[in-house]
Structure formats: C-alpha cells, structure tokens
C-alpha cells in the first residue's frame, strides 16, 4: 500500500470525484476506507472530519472551503 500525506489523499479523492464540493465527514470516511494515509502518531488510527478541516485550512493554495465543504482550487486539479 502506497503511503501518502493527508492533503495528497484528500486532493486525490476530490480529483476522482470531479472536484465536486464534498463535506469533511464524507472525506474523512473515504480517507479511512482507502487506507493509504497512515497517521504518524496519535492513539486513534482513523482520520476525523476535524482533521480534514484543519488540513484543508492549512493548504489554502490547494483547497477552497465553504463551511464544512471542500474542493480543490482552480488550477490545483
């Protein structure tokens, strides 16, 4: 299984779904189901919607946000 960063995994999921707006809960569920992103530390192996929110907020050059919905910025896909 290829390991990727969380923001790369989110971007891949959005690209695969035509870069439609997606909720952070749905994105977290898909990240966990795919199993490619593995947290380096922490006691919970699953990614939460709060982590999706934080990561997408930390990469404003890559993600566009509207409340709890996320998509890639134009040119990032």
Care to describe what's here?
By secondary structure, the protein is α+β, with helices and mostly antiparallel strands. Helix 2 (24-34) crosses helix 3. The protein has 3 helices and 3 strands, in the order αβααββ. It is globular and about 35 Å long. The N and C termini lie far apart (23 Å). Strand 2 (63-66) and strand 3 form a beta hairpin. The protein has helices at 6-16, 24-34, 49-58; strands at residues 22-23, 63-66, 69-72.
Distance between the termini: 23 Å
How would a textbook summarize the main sheet? 3 strands, antiparallel
Rg, alpha carbons = 12 Å
Q: Structural class, from secondary structure content?
A: alpha+beta
The strand count comes to 3
Q: Could you spell the SSE succession in H and E letters?
A: HEHHEE
Strand content: 5-15%
Oligomer: single chain
**Number of helical segments with 4 or more residues:** 3
Strand order of the largest sheet: 1-3-2
Shape by Cα distribution: globular
| Helix amount | 40-55%
Mean pLDDT: 91
Low-confidence stretches: none
In short:
With 77 residues, the protein is of the alpha+beta class. It contains three helices and three strands.
Task: Outline the fold blueprint.
Layout: H1 6-16, E1 22-23, H2 24-34, H3 49-58, E2 63-66, E3 69-72
Antiparallel strand pairs: 1-3, 2-3
Helix pairs in contact: 2-3
Keywords:
alpha+beta; three-stranded antiparallel β-sheet; 77 residues; 3 strands; globular
């Amino acid at each position: 299984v290829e390991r990727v960063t969380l923001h790369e995994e989110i971007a891949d999921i959005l690209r695969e779904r035509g870069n439609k707006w997606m909720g952070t809960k749905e994105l977290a569920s898909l990240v966990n189901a795919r199993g490619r992103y593995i947290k380096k530390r922490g006691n919970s192996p699953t990614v939460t919607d709060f982590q999706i929110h934080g990561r997408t907020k930390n990469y404003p050059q890559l993600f566009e946000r509207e409340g709890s919905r996320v998509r890639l910025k134009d040119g990032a896909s």
